[in-house]
Amino acid sequence: MQALVRIMAQLRGPEGCPWDRKQTWKSLIPYTIEEAYEVAEAVETGAGDHLKDELGDVLFHVIFYSRIAEEQNLFDIDDVIRGVTEKMIRRHPHVFGTAEAIVEASEVPGRWEEIKRQEKRDLAQGRGDDTIPSVFDDINSFLPALLWAAKVQRKMAQVGFDWTDVHDVAAKVREELDELAEGTARQDQANIEEEVGDCLFTMVNLARHLKVNPEAALRASTRKFQNRFRTMEERLHREGRLPRETPRDQLEALWLESKKHRP
User: How far apart are alpha carbons 86 and 221 in whole angstroms?
Assistant: First the structure.
């Protein structure tokens, strides 16, 4: 770790790398997001060696942000490590404190959220902040839309605002689809966009009730369809053809064939 910290200091130093010296927190954001998704891809594809490399890249970004902060006399990497260490101890009183032991993993998120809310209340009180607290206070609206929707729904569910029967959620999905069909029939583009959003939001809710991570499920389906189409491309390539030059009925036949090889 310290060797990597020293490397970062040298890269940002007077004789360091012009690109690294130019970066700011804001300019690093797109690269950090990309690295996080590369970690996800490595996990989903089961590429252990690739995952090791990608985790290293993410760690380097943590050190990069911390170095920029250190240059501004805000904090350094030791402060980051100390902060997360103290937080993990605080939020696991059933392991490191005197709280009642937790047997089931399903009990942990609720206690975690309660501790987190108390920490925020204490922080607000210390600042003299009298803003009315909300269940959404700790939700980052810059999350990918599916994850944002799922987190909003989960927060509302924690205070009792939720469907109690998954069949009711499924019925709501059908209702939203009917409303989308009505908007489509009217060719009302603004309403169509709103109803598509409502359909997606409700599908996320259905996924939550079925204990399915919507982001992971959509990524898996997207990868599946991409792989199937790749099989079609390979078949057409062997025949000296391109997808855009192939009649639709033949593409459909190839698609059905690809499903047999990549279900």
Answer: 39
Q: Can you tell me the distance from the alpha carbon of 246 to that of 239, in angstroms, rounded to the nearest whole number?
A: 11
Select from 84, 35, 86, 95 the least CA-distant residue to 61: 35
List the structure tokens of 230: 């790749």
Contact 37, 29 (CB under 8 A): no
2-90 and 145-212, same CATH topology? yes
Give the CATH class of 145-212.
mainly alpha
Confirm if 198 and 231 have CB atoms less than 8 A apart: no
Q: Residue 108: CA atoms inside 13 Å, Cβ hemisphere, count?
A: 10
pLDDT digits (tens, 9 = 90+) for 145-197: 999 999 999 999 988 999 999 999 999 999 999 999 999 999 999 999 999 99
Q: CATH 1.10.287.1080: does it fit domain 2-90?
A: yes
Name the DSSP letter for residue 240: T
CA distances from 220 to 54, 107, 215 (A): 20, 28, 9
- pLDDT above 80: residue 96: yes
CA atoms of 135 and 145, how far apart (whole Å): 18
To which H or E segment does residue 2 belong?
A: helix 2-12
